[in-house]
Amino acid sequence: MNGRNICAIATAPGRGSIGILRISGQSLADLAHSLIGFAPEPRKAHFCAFLGEGGTVLDQGIALYFPAPDSFTGEDVLELQGHGGRIVLESLRERALALGARQARPGEFSERAFLNGKLDLVQAEAIADLIDADSRQAARSAVRTLTGEFSRHIHSLVATLTGARVMLESAIDFSDSDIEVLDPTEVRQALEGILPSLEQLRDRSRQGALLNEGVTVVLGGLPNVGKSSLMNALSGEQTAIVTPIPGTTRDLLSRRIALNGLPLQLIDTAGLRESGDPIEQEGVKRARSAMASADLILLLLDASQFPDCPGELTREEIRIALGPLAEYLADEDERADWLGRLCIVRNKIDLLDLPPALKQSRIEGLALPLVQLSAKTGAGLDLLGKHLQDFVAYAGGEDAFVARARHLEALDEARSQCEAALANLARRAPLELIAEDLRLAQAALDRITGEVTTDDLLGEIFSRFCIGK
């Protein structure tokens, strides 16, 4: 058989009512004769036996055949849908390998669909994002991208850039003649129209990136301030052990949740205190590492220990609350970074009969958000949720496109190059410079859809896919 034929088990490992073996390549009608005993009619379900060497029956089920180019990959595709037992599927896969197919790499079916023009790169990535979606908003965002809505916006911007480039290149070609072929006003208007479109597209993409990647939120503070209770309250499950004994949590506990559609990676940490216990010391070390890389740090305070909040917190009070991590306040750069990611959570307000509130506290004149709540009763959790959404400027993701960091970087580069072109146009720079600005802007957008790409990029993207997809 042709060495290009690939096969993989396309269903998840384990027991199941249905298991699927997927094969893609060339001349699969011949391979089908060996696997099911006949050449299946295209796009028609055939109930039949699946055959091993010598005609032995390995299983029975549904065979589907999609000839090229009208298939997912653009090649011949044969799917055998049988019973979901591991041994049955492995036997079918080994039979396909014996007939000349090879094991598909992760994402290789989707990669072939991209290389054969069935999908662009953004749509291919959206397949993996749809599979990995852990909220309804994330799934809807992935579907919008998979159906080509994001790509259509990119192509529209590229078409406008192409029109402006044609005008510039024509002017360059006729620069030695007396013919006036460039209207600077028309080029400027085109660019001025592109910039707000780029900005709007980036905003929608950023919402999609939040849905796709989520936000890492670390809960920190002294022992017994209610970190584990807050973890349980936000997740809606008894994820962390809660006791009156300080130091119950000694390792990082992680839980992924969706808050109004926004994925959050919650991390509960060990209480921040000096200790001679080597296990607790390691817990504090891991808490420090988690906080250093977090998008947002929720620093919990016991309301009874900080009765004057909200107000002007002294550095010493923050130093007490941070315990062994207070050294970050000594370095001005570290301090600015930490305080910029810090939200004060004044917990246990039920003990003082205080109302929930979302306010501001201050440290040395710097405003810090402060949420008063009770993890035990749930009072104020909605205010904390509002702050989390405001912190990342999450707007709900209802019209978002699923996006990745590389998409945002490309959109930023395209905007920067368009702004440079406008500036060069205003100062009457050589047309070649303006044309180059627009070429770079278009190249950035083309990288999003895969019009311009590299083997390294493709390898990185598709290696993260499921095997069989």
Describe this entry's structure for a reader.
There is one protein chain. The strands form two sheets. The chain has an eight-stranded mixed beta sheet, with helices on both faces. The chain has a six-stranded mixed beta sheet with strand order 3-4-5-2-1-6, with helices on one face. The protein has helices spanning 28-36, 86-98, 108-115, 121-132, 136-146, 149-173, 184-213, 227-235, 278-293, 315-322, 332-340, 381-391, 405-426, 431-449, 455-462; strands at residues 6-9, 19-25, 46-51, 57-66, 76-82, 102-103, 215-221, 253-259, 262-268, 296-302, 312-313, 342-347, 357-363, 366-372. It starts with 5 loop residues before the first strand and ends in a 7-residue tail after the last helix. The chain has three domains: 6-118, 2-Layer Sandwich (Gyrase A, domain 2); 124-210 and 402-462, tRNA modification GTPase MnmE domain 2 (Four Helix Bundle (Hemerythrin (Met), subunit A)), CATH 1.20.120; 216-391, Rossmann fold (3-Layer(aba) Sandwich), CATH 3.40.50.300. By secondary structure, it is of the alpha/beta class.
CATH topology of the largest domain: Rossmann fold
Strand order in the largest sheet: 8-9-7-10-12-14-13-11
List segments where confidence is low: pLDDT < 50 over at least 5 consecutive residues: none
Strand and helix order: EEHEEEHEHHHHHEHEEHEEHHEEEHHHH
Largest sheet: 8 strands, mixed
Give the strand tally. Answer: 14
Structural class: alpha/beta
State the shape. Answer: flat
CATH superfamily of the largest domain: P-loop containing nucleotide triphosphate hydrolases
Query: Over the alpha carbons, how many angstroms does the gyration radius reach?
Result: 29 Å
What is the helix tally? 15
- Residues in helix, %: 40-55%
